[in-house]
Amino acid sequence: MQNFSGLKSRQDDVRFKAARTLKRYVATELREVSQELTSGFLEDLNHTIYDLVSSSEVHEKKGGILAIVALIGLEDGNVARVGRFANYLRGILPCTDYVVTEMTAKAIGCLALAEGAYTAEYVEFEVRRALEWLSTDKNENKRLAAVLVLRELAVHAPTLFYQQIQAFFDNIFVAVRDSKALIREKAVSALRACLALTAQRETKEAANPIIYQQAYQEAMKGFAESSGSSIKDRSHGVSLNRDDRVHGSLLITIELFMNCILKAESVLDEYLEPVETMPDLINLVAVNEDLDHMGVSSVNQNLFSQDHLPGTSPLKQYEGPKKEESLHFSSKVCRNYMEMNYNEVCDAVLRYRSNRSPLIQQSLLSLLPLLAAFDPFTFSKSYLEITLTYLLGCLRKDREKSTALHAVGIMALAVEDKIYLHIDSILAVIKSSLPSGREIASKKVRNTVVEPHVFSCISQLARALGTRLTKKIEGLLDQMFGVGLSSGLTNALRVIAVHIPTLCKNIQDGVLKMLSLILMHRPLKHPGAPKGPIPLSQSLSSGGFDYDNSTVALALQTLGSFDFGGNPLTQFVSSCAENYLSSEHKTIRLEAVKTCASLLVPTLQPVSVLTSGHTTSSASSAQIVSDILVQLLQVGITDLDEEVRLCVLTSLDEKYDAHLAQAENLTTLFVAMHDEAFRIREVAMCIIGRLSNLNPAFVMPSLRKSLIQILTELEYSGIGRNKEQSARLLRHMIANAPKLVKPYQEPILKVLIPKLTEAIPNPSVVTNILAAIGELAKACGVAMCKYVDELCPIIIDMLQDASSFGKREVAIWTLGQLVENTGCVIEPYNKHPNLLEVLLNLLKAEQVHSIRRETIRVLGLLGALDPYKRKLNQSKGSASSTQGLPVSEAIHKSASAQDGNSQVDSASELLVSLSSGNLEDFYPSAAIASLMKILKDPSLSQHHTMVIQALTFIFKSLGIKSVPFLPQIMPAFLSTVKMCDPIFREFLFKQLGIIISIIKQHARKYMPDILNVVREFWSPNSPLQTTIIILIEQIVVAMGEELKVYLPPMVQPVLRVFMQDQSERKIVTQKMLNALQMCGASLDDYLHLLVPPIVKIFENSSNHVDVRRIAMETIDKLTDTLDFSDFASQIIHAIVRVLDSGAELRQTAMNTLCCLVVQLGSKYNLFIPMVKKVLLKHKIFNMQYELLIGKLLQDEPLLSEDDELIHRRTKSYGCMQDDTAALETASYTAKMHVEVNSLQRAWATTGRLSKDDWVEWLRRLGVELLKESPNPALRSCWALAQAYNTLARELFNAAFVSCWMELTPIQKEDLVVNFKQALLVPNIPEITQTLLNLAEIMEHGE
Questions:
Q1: Alpha helix (H) ranges present in 959-1024?
Q2: pLDDT grade, residue 297 (50/70/90)?
Q3: Whole-prediction pTM value?
């Protein structure tokens, strides 16, 4: 089970990682354990979260909040959990720590997204509480918490929040007038969200100017009341000075004009950047972005040839509000109202331009550009001169310079040409902010700090005035380049190059020179320039010093994204690949990958050109593309960081297809398709599927193998996360390689459809499988018609699932694909009368916009239904509903019927029917028949242990001759295993293993039943696990090569052992790994299921060293019989991490690595640099590994006869053969010694007087005959016969015959005399009947 220590960490990144890990565990692995363990874990988790949020430590409160957000939205109907979390969050507020307060508010907003009826009550309560805190409470922490909560609820639950919008406007201005600037700013942030909310819902019929009038009057009241020195707030008794009032009014005015500006106006995007800046907090919503479940991120979606399917994960709901926050809604009502009061606002605002308050000055600088953008004509005519004079004054003040520069730039965008009259004054200030030519020449620029808004102001002026600034901007370029590379500079240069085209060439050359110095450490040398040494003075110009990592990363980013026109960049791409793809710093590697991929694009040849053979590029250019692509793919396989590998694959879009389709590149991509990171496997699947059209001969065989592996994992893994990932991969394969999948439609659906109706469905698995079926409908078209009737009821059920909007969204999408691609219109209405009603209900009640839109589309695809026929369908549906539902579960009859129905009813009759030559076959048959009669009788369960012991002894004695008796024994034996108590069951499993080790392959007929019983009782952490694993080992040895057929049912229990073993030192896992080592080649079809958990075991440093060692040894030993080429990447990456983590397992890791080198051969060349780096880092030397790598690099044979690996292999094979021999059981078929003296004492009749004496004589004689029988089968029953006399009576005749054959004539005569004496005793029918029956049998036998 997971621990929660990471949530208590003082480090933000550790807490964040712990929260994501918790979410992933609860959403995946926890679903695979028993209900008891799940309940226990969740109870402990709730206690932990409560302790965290109740803690006095700030960092622990943060951890508790992160845990709550991580668990929101998991699809398990957790209404109680939502209520509990709501109470936890309410207990945190108010809080003295601002970060905790804001995190709690964001968590409350996320909780408002949880589905269910509770949400409406929850939002209503939180809004009312916040408004109450605003209106009546004097505690500033409560007021701050209130405005933060109101803002989050307005953003995350707009529909519910809008019901109380008027109450919000009645109370929010109290907070805007607060004496604390932070509370005022956050109150205005809430006001912004609510103004956007009202603007979004504004219609001609429902225009409500009252709220805008109310806000405007509050603003004007603040300006009017500012004449006094201080004013006492009536609601809170807080004394407000004039500046506080004015600041609040300015903030309100800013929001009103922001609400008026049209989205299309260019000033908006520039303005939003500084205004929307929020404190640098952990984004709580990001906790929900579980990448293993959400699959490929948005940057990869253009990679897929399919339309993006909305709603594939319920976590997507958290992204909606986050995006909506950045959307802008303009209000026409507000605009009309503000137009009437425009002049009044401008006059009131400009009165404060001489105010000394920093807050007022910052707000004024933010508001003035908005006033200019709102009505440029009026502003330019009446207020521009006074405003620019004020702005130029601000530019000369260091404290306000940055904001003033930004304001000037936006003002220029608003008034455009009108600002040209003042351009010289503005540029003079800008020029003074940049380093002078003397500073550049003296190389003092390094320490010069330039305001980022200097560059943004220049770019905005260029946008506003265009070519009129050509000469003036050209004079600034040298100073701008002298500052050095920065993101602000590159953004400004891009804008200038677009709006002043004549400067484009100068800008491109200047940027290239900077990049050459940073990336290649030398001045730019254009292709074709004369060769020769670079003068020392020139090489030292503009630097001559090392650049930090952030500058190098920015230079790479600029190189890959800046438009350099037709400038050749070949020298740059080669340098980047050589120097930066293997950098020690992740950021540099990421940027190098993106840059190399971007720079190669102009030199790529389209598919049509390559296939025609007429290339337009030079041979050197083609060679560069080939070399760089090989290096990129190598990084995509061997880089230790998952994000870098993912970046490589996502950078290789359709433009690279012609080159990626080459065989050597495809080989590398197939390695990526088995990467340890699921996101990478997804992207690799999409790329390879896309390439199947270009190189089908190479791609199709491997993709078919992958298809079989995916279907195997779906059908047999039994692990929810594995099935979900397999369904996602299948969906990508279908979408990108439809030609491959189309012939396999039937087997695919044969696996997928049953998974939709499992008894305990996993929501994520069902959603992804349904999405895959939708893609299959697109690929197969009309061929899917015959499955529509089977799928429609399932889809209709999911459309009515109120617990999961993800299911509903995918279900409606899949239904649309089925209808659209099969042409099945109208008919679904007739066959499923409730379909139309379900669709119409979705339109009425569904809250998610995307589902309503898709529902309308599906209704259009299905077509119009005749009203008369609809009535008939409805009547048909109601009639059928009264007849009851069809039975969905078949009644399974037991297959364990007695096989002996046709046999002779009694052992005596069987004996009579046999000849003397068949007596050796008769004895075990008689014994087994009697023993099985006891075993099948539940009332005799106290004797079952001895019955099983006797049967085992019979098998040992008969050896392979026991096979004919299997039909008589195995069904009853397995039935007893199912019905008995747990303690006896363990004994039965042990005896079953012994029997299987004796009969070997002859158990094949019963192996499915045996494995079903094993699977039934093989539960995680069961006390039977060790015994069952020993049984599995015996089955492996017994079945040999035939084992492969019987493995599928065992895959799921094996995987559960690896995931959920809680035994000390994971001893059960160790035994399971040893059993897998014995399976050998039989595991070939299941390697894709077994390798990842085995790798995870030895990679996890928290596991005991013994189990980690055995896990690596398992890979080591299986390399002899199995091909691990497909899994080389994830195995070697894990081994490298083991080598890097500590010394205790390094020898085992190097041994395993050597075996992989031998198996992979030249394919291992990809991984040599990666492994070498770790070996050098820790000074690890392994003679065997070094010899193998030396031979590999020289193309020599890797192994010779005297090689250490061969000797080690031979030794291990010898051990396995010894183990196998140990399992061979000796056969005791020879006759056993008969102790005649004991028999004589038993048959002697002297001293027998009473009836009881004679009955005891008969009982003792029967037992003694069994005990001294020379036949092992009969002798095995004597101990049981002592406890259960009926068995002695049943086997009396058989035991007597077996002993009679061993007696001498004298002994036989003595026996007959005693029997005659017994027959003379009157009134004892038991003896008389037994002996007469025996006499008859002996007579027939003679």
A1: 966-979, 982-999, 1007-1017
A2: very low
A3: 0.81
